[in-house]
C-alpha cells in the first residue's frame, strides 16, 4: 500500500481526505441513529410491543427512494438501509440464550447466574438443539454442560464441537447439589426414582441405602425427572431445589449426593470471538497420526512455550477405530503471541487442529 501523497495523484489524495471525513460523519450518524433506535426499543419493551414494524420500515424506504437524486442506485440504497434496519432490530431485541432444558435444569441455573434476569431464556430438548439454535442465529448464546467434577466429561458436548463452527465465549462453574423431590413428601411411598443418568450416579450410595427397592429410571434431564415426579403416583426425582419450586414438589431429602463439592463446568457458546482479558483460557481439539509418540510430539510445543495445560481429554473420532480427538485447555488467549504461535506449530504436527475459543477464566466460586 502506498503512503498518502507519495505516488498517488494529489487530486485523489484531496478527495480521499474528504471521503474519510464523510465516513467519520456517517459512522457518527449511524451510531446516533442506533442510540435513538435503542430508545424506541426500550419504549416498545415497556409497552410489550414487538420489535419489527414492517409498515414503518416500508414508509422509510418510500421516503428515501423519493428523495434519492442519485448517483446512488436504488437497489444499493435498499440494500444499505435493509442492513442498517436489521442492525437496529438486533439492538432492540433482548439477548436470547438457549440452554439444555426444560426449565430448572442445572444448565438453566448456570445460565441465569451467568446472564442475569434481563435476557430471554429458550429451553432446548437436547445439547444438539442448543448448538443448532445458536448456529441458526435464533439465539445469541447457548449454555451447555461440559464436565462434572465426579462424572467427568459430557461426551456429547465434546463431540458436537467437531461439527460446529461455534466458539466458546465463556465458562461457568456451578456447585451441584441434589435433592430428592416427590409429591408425597415421604420416603415410604416412593417406588420409582427418575433422574438424569449423571445425577443418579452421583447419588448412587444414598439411593441404595435409603431406597434399596426403588426402580431407578433415566431421563434426559433432572427437570424432566421433576416433571415425571409431579405427574406419576409413587415417583420421585433427583433434581435441584429450584425444580421443586417450579414443579410444586416437596423436598423429601436434601443434599443427597455421595460426594460433596460436586461441581459442573458449563460453556457459553456463541458465534463471535471474545477479546483477551489477561486471565484467559484457550480450548482446542486435535487428531494425531496413529504412530507411537504422536501425542507427546503434538503437546511438546506447549511445554516449550511454557504454556500451562489445564485439561486433556480424549474421545474416539468414530471415523476409524482407536483413533482419538484430544481436547486441550491451556492458560492464555489466542491474541497472545505465545498461544497463537504454539497452535500454529502444533497444527503442523497433527492431522487436524481446531481452535475452539479463547475466553475469560472463571473461578469455581
Ligand atoms: C426503530 C424502530 O424499530 C424497528 C427498526 C426500524 C429502523 O431501524 O428504523 C424501523 C422499524 C422497526 O422495524 C421503530 O419501530 O421505529
TrEMBL record:
Reaction catalysed by this enzyme: prephenate + H(+) = 3-phenylpyruvate + CO2 + H2O; chorismate = prephenate
Site entry (Essential for prephenate dehydratase activity), positions: 264
Entries under InterPro entries matching the protein: ACT-like_dom_sf, ACT_dom, Chor_mutase/pphenate_deHydtase, Chorismate_II_sf, CM_dom_sf, CM_II_prokaryot, Preph_deHydtase, Preph_deHydtase_CS
Domain of life: Bacteria
Residue ranges of domain Chorismate mutase in the record: 6-96
Key word Lyase present: yes
Pfam families the record matches: ACT, CM_2, PDT
Example of a GO MF term: chorismate mutase activity
Location in the cell: Cytoplasm
UniProt keywords, alphabetically: Amino-acid biosynthesis, Aromatic amino acid biosynthesis, Cytoplasm, Isomerase, Lyase, Multifunctional enzyme, Phenylalanine biosynthesis
Residues reported to bind substrate: 16, 33, 44, 53, 57, 88, 92
Domain Prephenate dehydratase, chain residue ranges per copy: 96-271
EC numbers, comma separated: 4.2.1.51, 5.4.99.5
Annotated ACT domain residues: 283-360
Pathway of action: Amino-acid biosynthesis; L-phenylalanine biosynthesis; phenylpyruvate from prephenate: step 1/1; Metabolic intermediate biosynthesis; prephenate biosynthesis; prephenate from chorismate: step 1/1
Main location: cytoplasm
GO (cellular component) term, any one: cytoplasm
Gene Ontology biological process: chorismate metabolic process; L-phenylalanine biosynthetic process
Primary role: Catalyzes the Claisen rearrangement of chorismate to prephenate and the decarboxylation/dehydration of prephenate to phenylpyruvate.
Protein name as annotated: Bifunctional chorismate mutase/prephenate dehydratase
